[in-house]
User: What shape does this take?
Amino acid sequence: MAAISHISSSRTSKGLTLASLPPEIVDLILDFAIPQPPEIGETKPVSYNQLIPNEPWFDFTRSRHGLWGLCLGSRAFSALAYPRLYSVMALLDEESMFLYFRTLAERPHYGTWTRYLSCHLTLTSEPVIRDTRRAVGRKLRTFRPASEPAVLMSAIRKALDIMAISLPHMSTVAGDFDYVPQVILAFILAFTPHLDTLLLQVPINEDYLDYSALFDKLHLIAGPRRHQHPHFATSPYQPPSPHPFNNLTTLLLQGDPELLEQYENSEDREFELPEIWGVQARCYLPLYECFPNLSTLEISTDDGVWSNLLDEEDLFLSSDSSHNHPYLNQIRHLYLHNSVTCPRNLHYVLRNAPRLQTLYMTPLRDRTYYRGPKEDSPDAHPEALDVALASHAPHLRHLDVAWFEVSGHEGMIGADGRLASLPRMHRLEKLCIQLAVLYGCSPATMETPLVELLPPNLVELALEDYWWWNLEDYDAMGEWTPRQKLAHYRGSKEYRNTALRMLAGLAESVGQRMPALKRVMLLCRIPWTWMIEDGVELDSHFDEVRTAFEAQGVEFLVDEV
Assistant: This one.
């Protein structure tokens, strides 16, 4: 940044100035300064000065600081830096949210630059409501909204008038203007017509689940939909054209990470942990319907329950209901992080997302995800994942799911605890799966060649070298001594030989049976199965397997999970 500023403010011996640089070079340099937000699930930073390099928020805050410095430089740099400063926005506290709202109300064109917006506040929590009221009290008098006659600006001026009249009577107790944070965020979204990604922090317990004010306000802004839903009243005015949220394709629902930390630190907990907690994705149908082109849904810490509220209402009203309300109908790509969704509940995911192309899930270690009747039979449960894949996943192209273990509940996966439908899924191109899910718990299946258990048109395959009967070893390996690691390695010789034969057999078969395959990866959960510190390297076992795959034009990799 310093080098760019020097070029722009002074001439070199050759007379080089900012104007003489190719515009595409300047644009490329400034594009690198656009901050990249942390991954979903990160807690917000405590203090700018306390952040250290390599922390998730460090680069983000420093990039924004650098862009702000450029905005204060020459007019030429200001014109280039401002759009990038506002392209990625993170609302980290109540005052910054209110000030961003003020900026957009005064300079509406700033909102046209925003492409990514994250709100790291649980809008219905008591602390956020209280601190938002305080921010309104401090900053409301500084508002100078634009004088445009647009419907949105008229609505904002009306809202500000209501706040000004009510401000002397606002108290700091719950119940007074609890909806104000939601209304402010709704207005912010209305000012960002080119927004493509929204991260919304949401509650993970039943105390603060009501985001209805946000839903209602967004619905009023969006206007009536083609399929009016009973959750909403009729909009009082027509929306501007095009649709105000037409560009939003990705929604990230982040379960409150600070509350999650309290739940996970059970030893320090001074409250009773709810039986079911996490993001209730089925409750956000009104939000999904406000975004007509929403296709990607990403959720951290869901509650594992994916039944349909509308179906439940129909069943309550009529015992002979035949309605079908797939509330994830528009979703093509679903990513679940730290999920407690069990295989049976993925049945409901696929049934409610009939157009799904990508299903990704990383598990949260929580035994409470067995929600529902216990599986006492080895036969497939009627709502097993295998049944759902065969019946409700015609468009699935990418499947990546895993669990820590489902011992005693294998029927939730399928008959014999395995996904027998995979070989018939001809559209599946990417698969990441546990070997235990491929082979199940039937001794007869163990003799089946790996190629016969896989979809025929895979392009990428990742196999998780992880068997549920090793769970105790997995949990304890952090405390293992070198002698214990060596004993585990020696005791795993037969398993290593079996796995190597399995992979070698796959390598021999891919040319005829899986011609599209380009990459195979083995992911090792317990590295001491394959390596000895300062003795045997993980990669050393796979030279022949790698050579066999390379002969078929397939890349082979092995790595630790």
Residues 405 and 472 are 11 Å apart (CA to CA).
